[in-house]
Amino acid sequence: MRVMLRMDIFFESDKEVICFCEHVFQQNKQIAVHWQVNEKWGNQLTINYEPLNEIIFQSIAVSLVHVYISNRLRSVIHEIIRDSYYFTDHHEIEKIYELAEWIVTGVDEDSKMLRKHKHPVQLLRAIFLMHIRNAQTVHFDSIVQFGMKAFKKDLVHYIGLAIDEFKREEEHQSFINTLREYVHTKEPMIPLIHVVEGSPFSYYSTVGRQLSKIELRNIMKKAPLYLFGFPEDEWNLAPLIAMAPEKINMYVDDPSNPKTQTIINVFQERVILKSFKDFPYTYSSYEH
After folding, report:
1. Cα dist from 130 to 56, 60, 164, whole Å
2. Is the link from the previous residue into 120 a cis peptide, with omega within 30 of 0?
3. What does the alpha-carbon distance between residue 229 and residue 183 come to, in Å, rounded to a whole number?
4. What pLDDT shows up at residue 286?
5. Pairing relation of β-strands 192-196 and 202-204?
């Protein structure tokens, strides 16, 4: 690899050059950067190092990725949502953007699974590395405008996945609203039920007696649950919809559990969350 003693990086935006400097210093405190204004190209950063090695290139590339994600990704995603998928409603565009950003930059297992464990951020870094290796002059805006074809192609796909997620969320919210309306208008069967988080949830009467699955099935037969598309072996939400209790004490370890959140969304102020350790009766899970 050709050894260089200097690299000039140009940014048109003051905000982006500051963003780069802050991030590159976090990456490598040994990098010396001189900032001046070039009449033709705007902000000019001169990096002097002997030699400009792979560690320096990686620090620069990662920092350019940070600048792109922080300052450019939002507008690019918005543009694709409008121009490629023809969304015009501001609320819908913003929600799809949030989902797309999560899919592209998320580090949780759900986002990784949606993008089939591909690494769009690593692709961005590879693009910037390709443009800065063996280059004494680097124009950030030029790379963004002309060098992102592969990334934008993938981005269109990820936004499509985000739109699918958005539609599923809308359908789920419509489902929740339907259940909420049904529960609101239905005469409660019981004043209070104790629910213990598990797989599936367990149900206890006000005197601490666990309701068997036979009892739960008989209760569910009395309600038109077929209207909501519940399968016969749904034991987490369907029994509560059938009972429509005035009050639900839920004993949980993880309040963020999606099944728990669904019950909260349907029954709202009727639900009182409690810690699993505060369950006042003897607990036993159902036999399968």
Report:
1. 14, 12, 33
2. no
3. 16
4. 53
5. antiparallel
Distances in Å between the alpha carbon of 263 and those of 9, 95, 198, 201?
54, 23, 14, 11
146 SS3 class: helix
pTM: 0.76
- Please state the φ and ψ torsions of residue 104, each to the nearest 5 degrees: -75, -45
The secondary structure of 62-130 as a DSSP string is HHHHHHHHHHTHHHHHHHHHHHTT----HHHHHHHHHHHHHHHH--SHHHHHHTTT--HHHHHHHHHHH
Segment 61-81 shows an average pLDDT of 97
**In terms of Cα–Cα distance, which of 107, 120, 125, 149 is closest to 23?**
125
Instruction: Give backbone dihedrals phi and psi of 11, rounded to 5 degrees, phi first.
Output: -130, 135
Strand partners, 194: 204, 249
- The H helix count followed by the E strand count for the chain is 11, 8
| Predicted pLDDT of residue 287 | 46
Residue tagged 């919210």 (tokens): 173
Q: What's the rounded Cα separation, in Å, for the pair 240 and 179?
A: 11
pLDDT exceeding 70 applies to what percent of the chain?
96
Q: How far apart, in whole angstroms, are the C-alpha atoms of residue 204 and residue 194?
A: 5
Strand order in the sheet with 271-275: 202-204, 192-196, 247-252, 271-275
Return the H-helix or E-strand segment holding 192.
strand 192-196
